[in-house]
Every structure is written in structure tokens, then in C-alpha cells.
């Protein structure tokens, strides 16, 4: 049974239960297109889930069964981005994409209906995608005067291969859930009635496993694609683990006690 978070939001729903946080874009009247405030709220909820020690896995989804997300809200698109409060124009979903990738907990896209445009990229950057049998995937950028040349292109190409990624972007076709499964774009396809229960089953399986192992694996797989940012993330985990050792703590203790450190007490391993 999902508990509604005490945080208040306009464009999203935020729930938690049994180690799982669920962030739902709640704009079904526009197929869950996002505007700047939607993205800001998703970012705030994701941050809350990251820092909540009771949470081990995060689900991203869209309200209703017609759409996961249809990308940026075209009705508020200005000449340099999507119009937020005070007339500021944003492409802040790109920040959210990086936040999903660097979140040390697995993020699962639960997709019913359309995952299109910037909404498609959102599922691409999630660690896993569970698709309902009515899911439809695709990019629209070149047909609506947009493109995502970041994760939306290069990471997509790592996922489905260069030829298929170019097809997806150059032709702007839509693909069924089965086609998405065949090209390695999603992890599984389930009847829509079972979408949430199956997603929760996958989350529970991950919750059985070592959080630190999952965290380091995510960082390691990111490092393969993300250059120095990926290495920083992976190395940050090494630093965290090093801080947990007596050897590293000896350095801190010696500094605080104003004495030379006794690192010779520690083994030099082969
Ligand atoms: C998703 C799709 C293919 C669904 O088609 P259909 O025919 O089933 O539904 P319909 O009638 O198009 O949509 C239902 C309502 O939702 C609105 C529509 O305007 C319509 O509203 P009403 O006519 O009922 O009032 N709606 C749907 N998507 C919307 C959107 N993105 N913004 C505002 N309103 C939207 C079809 O709806 C579709 O193709 N949608 C547009 C997909 C799209 O091009 N998204 C933007 C891509 S660019 C992007 O996201 C981006 C980026 O490339 C880089 C950085 C940041 C963002």
C-alpha cells in the first residue's frame, strides 16, 4: 500500500512503500508532457528518495494508462526552451537525466502507453524499463524542431546499436513494446493489468541484494559511457569505501591528534 509523501507537489504524485519510492508525472490530459515545474518537482522527489535511507529503489511513471511521458510541453515552448515561472525558459530535463544517472539507487521506468520525445529519453536514462503491452516508444525531435544529442542519442546508440538509434531519430517512427524488447530498449513486456505488480516484483528482487554492490555496479556501468563524470562517480564510491576503513580513519585521527599517521600498521596488499 503506497503512502503519499508529506511533500507537496502540483504536477507529480510521490509515494513510498516497503523500500520503494514512486514518482508519477500527473498531467494525463497532455499525455504527461512535462513543463519546467514538473521537472523541478521530479528532481526534488528524486533527491528526497536518494537521501531517504528506507528507500532502495525508485520507480518513475506517468499517471493513467495512456502515457508514461510525451516529452516537453509544446504549448509553453518559447524561443529558447520551455517557459517556467517569471518567463524563464528551461531545458531543465537535461539536469534531471544526469540526476537519474548519478542517483546511487536503481531507477526503474514503469511505462504504459506513450514514451515519446523527451519522455522517451527519460525511460532511456533509467536503469531498467518495465513496459506494458500497450507501450509505444519513439523520438519526435526532428519532426517538431528539437533533438536530444546527449544521452538521448549516444546512450541510446549504446543500447540499441548505431543503425537502430539513427533510424529512431532520423525517421521518428513509433515502436511497439515487443519491438522495443527485441531491440534491447526495455527489460520486459507485461499485460497492462500486471504492470505495477510486475514492476514491484522486480524492485523487491533488487531490494534483496546488496545496496553497495548495486550502487558500485551502476557507477561502473555509467563510467564506461560518461567520461570523467562517470569516473568521478565510480571513484566517489571508492572514496566512500576507503573512509570506512581503519587505514583512512588513521589519517583523520592523526591529523586531529596532531601526530604523524601510523600507516605502517596497515598491510600493503599485492
Ligand atoms: C504522444 C502522441 C504521439 C499521442 O498522440 P495521440 O493522437 O494519441 O494524442 P494527442 O491527441 O496528440 O494528445 C492528447 C492531448 O495531449 C496533448 C495533445 O495536444 C492533446 O491535447 P488536446 O488536443 O486534447 O487538447 N499533448 C500530447 N503531447 C503533448 C506535448 N508534448 N506537449 C503538449 N501537449 C501535448 C502525440 O501527442 C505527440 O506526438 N505528442 C508530442 C510529442 C513531442 O513531440 N514531444 C516533444 C519532443 S521534444 C522534447 O521533449 C525535448 C527535447 O527534444 C529536448 C529537450 C527537452 C525536451
From TrEMBL:
Q: Which GO terms describe its molecular function?
A: 1,4-dihydroxy-2-naphthoyl-CoA synthase activity
For the site labelled Important for catalysis, the residues are: 82, 243
The keyword Lyase belongs to this UniProt entry's keyword annotation:
yes
- Which cofactors? hydrogencarbonate
Query: What Gene3D superfamilies has UniProt attached to this entry?
Result: 2-enoyl-CoA Hydratase, Chain A, domain 1, Lyase 2-enoyl-coa Hydratase, Chain A, domain 2
Instruction: Give the residues annotated as coiled coil.
Output: none
Supply the alphabetized keyword list: Lyase, Menaquinone biosynthesis
Q: Where does hydrogencarbonate bind?
A: 139-141
The enzyme's E.C. designation: 4.1.3.36
Which residues are substrate-binding?
A: 70-74, 82, 114-118, 140, 146, 243, 258
GO term, biological process aspect, one: menaquinone biosynthetic process
Q: What cellular component GO annotations does this protein have?
A: cytosol
Q: Does the keyword Lyase apply?
A: yes
Q: Which reaction does it catalyse?
A: 2-succinylbenzoyl-CoA + H(+) = 1,4-dihydroxy-2-naphthoyl-CoA + H2O
Q: In which pathway does it act?
A: Quinol/quinone metabolism; 1,4-dihydroxy-2-naphthoate biosynthesis; 1,4-dihydroxy-2-naphthoate from chorismate: step 6/7; Quinol/quinone metabolism; menaquinone biosynthesis
CDD domains recorded: crotonase-like
What is the role of this chain? Converts o-succinylbenzoyl-CoA (OSB-CoA) to 1,4-dihydroxy-2-naphthoyl-CoA (DHNA-CoA).
Q: What family does the entry list?
A: Belongs to the enoyl-CoA hydratase/isomerase family. MenB subfamily.
Q: What is this protein called?
A: 1,4-dihydroxy-2-naphthoyl-CoA synthase
The coding gene here is menB
Amino acid at each position: 500500500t503506497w503512502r503519499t509523501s508529506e511533500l507537496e507537489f502540483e504536477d507529480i504524485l510521490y509515494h513510498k512503500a516497503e523500500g520503494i519510492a514512486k514518482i508519477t508525472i500527473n498531467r494525463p490530459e497532455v499525455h504527461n508532457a512535462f513543463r519546467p515545474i514538473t521537472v523541478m518537482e521530479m528532481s526534488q522527489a528524486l533527491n528526497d528518495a536518494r537521501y531517504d535511507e528506507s528507500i532502495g529503489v525508485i520507480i518513475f511513471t506517468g499517471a493513467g494508462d495512456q502515457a508514461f511521458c510525451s516529452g516537453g510541453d509544446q504549448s509553453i515552448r518559447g524561443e529558447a526552451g520551455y517557459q517556467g515561472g517569471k518567463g524563464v525558459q528551461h531545458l531543465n530535463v537535461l539536469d534531471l537525466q544526469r540526476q537519474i544517472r548519478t542517483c546511487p539507487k536503481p531507477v526503474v521506468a514503469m511505462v504504459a502507453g506513450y514514451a515519446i520525445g523527451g519522455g522517451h529519453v527519460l525511460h532511456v536514462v533509467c536503469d531498467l524499463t518495465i513496459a506494458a503491452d500497450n507501450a509505444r516508444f519513439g523520438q519526435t525531435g526532428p519532426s517538431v524542431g528539437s533533438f536530444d544529442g546527449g544521452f538521448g542519442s549516444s546512450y541510446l546508440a549504446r543500447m540499441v546499436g548505431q543503425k537502430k538509434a539513427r533510424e529512431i531519430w532520423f525517421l521518428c517512427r513509433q515502436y511497439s513494446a515487443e519491438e522495443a524488447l527485441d531491440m534491447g530498449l526495455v527489460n520486459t513486456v507485461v499485460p497492462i493489468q500486471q504492470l505495477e505488480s510486475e514492476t514491484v516484483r522486480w524492485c523487491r528482487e533488487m531490494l534483496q541484494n546488496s545496496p553497495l554492490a548495486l550502487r558500485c555496479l551502476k557507477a561502473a556501468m555509467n563510467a564506461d559511457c560518461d567520461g570523467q563524470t562517470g569516473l568521478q562517480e565510480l571513484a566517489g564510491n571508492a572514496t566512500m569505501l576507503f573512509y570506512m576503513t581503519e587505514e583512512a580513519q588513521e589519517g583523520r585521527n592523526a591529523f586531529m591528534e596532531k601526530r604523524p599517521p601510523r600507516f605502517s600498521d596497515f598491510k600493503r596488499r599485492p
